[in-house]
Amino acid sequence: MEQGCQLIQTREGTRIYYRQRLPAHPKAVVMICHGYAEHSSFYVQFMEFLAEHDYGAYALDHRGHGHSEAERGHLDRFEVFLEDLDVFVDHVRELHPTQPLFMFGHSMGGLISFNYGILHPGKLQGQIFSGAALARPVGTEYIPTFLFKLLNVVLKRLRIRPKLSGKTTRNMAVRKISDGDSLVLRYATLGFFYQFACRGVAFAQEKAGRYQLPCLILHGTGDRLVPYQASQRIFAEIFSRDKTLKLYEGLYHELIHEPEREEVLADIVDWLERRVKFC
C-alpha cells in the first residue's frame, strides 16, 4: 500500500493538505470530505480499509482545518469549500485519468459533497453520504433565517463553541483521541455557522431536485447532531434514479467509528462494488 501526504494550491493561492492510501492497482478512487471538528487523520483507518479492498483513497483537510491554510474557524463564503473541492477533484483526476471517481462526505463534509454533486455531476461516478448535514444541525434549527442573517452582520466574529462531547460516537477510544487532538476546531465564528448551517444547507434543500448522481445515503437514528429525517427528506427529493437510503437503528453521528462500524463499512464496499462494474 502506498501512503503519502501532499499539498495542493487552490485557485486563489491557499495551500490545502491531503493524505492518500493507494493499493497497487486501484479499481476506483474514493475522495473523502471530513466534517466540522475533524480533519483527514480521522479517516486513516477507513482509507486503509478501502485500500485493502483495492480502492484508492484520498482525504483532504478543508481550509482552516487540520494542516490546511486559511483562517481557522471562520468563513466568509460557503462556496469557497466547493471551489477548493473542485481543485482537489481535478487534481485526483489527473492522477487517475481512467479510474472511476467516487466521493464520501460526512456531516458538514456531506453537505459540501452534496452541493458539489449538484454543481459538477459530470466529474464523479457516485457519492456516499454519512450523517450528512442536509438540514440545520441541532441547536441552529430554530433560528429564523432573517435573524441568522442579521446576527452574521453584527456579530460575524463572535466565537462559538458547540457542545459536541458525547454526541459524535459511542466509541470511547475515538472520543478520547478527538478530545486530545490539537488540530480539531473547538471554536468557530458565528459567520462560519451562518455560511455552513444557513447558506450551505439552504442551497442543498432548494436545489435537491437537480441532484442526479448515483448515491448511498447513510444515517444513524440515534444521531444527536443532525436528525436522520434530513436524509429521508433529501432522499425523497433528489432526482437520482440510482439512490439508496439506509438507516442504522440507534447509531450515533459518526457511523464509521461506531461499535457497529463493520456493518457500515461492508455496506459501503458492497455499494461501490455494484457501481464499479458498470463504470
From TrEMBL:
Gene3D superfamilies the record matches: alpha/beta hydrolase
TM regions (residue ranges): none
Top-level taxon of origin: Bacteria
Entry EC number(s): 3.1.1.23
Annotated Serine aminopeptidase S33 domain residues: 25-260
Molecular function via GO: monoacylglycerol lipase activity
Protein name listed in UniProt: Acylglycerol lipase
Source species of the chain: Desulfitobacterium hafniense (strain DSM 10664 / DCB-2)
